[in-house]
Design goal:
- This protein is mainly α.
- The protein has one domain (23-158).
- 63% of the residues lie in helices and 0% in strands.
- The chain contains five helices and no strands.
- The chain has helices spanning 9-13, 23-44, 57-78, 91-123, 129-158.
- Helix 3 packs parallel to helix 5 and helix 4 runs antiparallel to helix 5 (129-158).
- The radius of gyration is 22 Å and the shape is elongated.
- The relative contact order is 0.19.
- Keywords: Membrane, Transmembrane, Transmembrane helix.
- It holds the Pfam family DUF3180.
- This is DUF3180 domain-containing protein.
Amino acid sequence: MTEPRRRSRRDQDEEPGLGPTRLRDLTVIAVIVAVTAFVLVRYNYGSLPPMPLLAGIVLYVLAALEVLIAFIVRARVASRDVGRARGQLHPITAARVLALAKASAILGAIAVGVWTGLLIFLATRHDLAAADHDLPGSIVGVVGGVVLVVAALWLEYCCRAPDDPTDDPVGGHPGPA
């Protein structure tokens, strides 16, 4: 008989399932999308319509909403006001917010990639007046993508469960002093 394979310490420390979003993964997504966007824009720029300055404004709106949600979730988690009772943050809602944060981080990385690919193309085309016109809009888009990634990662951080249970009474609220 063979001896069962021993699990390494690293395998024992990692629990299967959903883990925090890694910045490395988001960077890989952004780089791949940036290269793809650069190639597509390089060969199709002449057929694209002029870019408005605020083309990436939706990224800022999404980031603002996620920051607002993060403040609410953070306050509920910090006060241990998570549960099924009325007025508490329902665990399913917390899971949905976490899924939103993860999806938004990926969307932000994709947006950073698209806008960066466009920005690199426009920055290298000093001979086109249209490129000079579109450059500020692409900068707004890149910054918006970065802001969305940061907001999504912070929202994900706010969804973390409190570390270890304390000796607080049931319900998580400290008793009278």
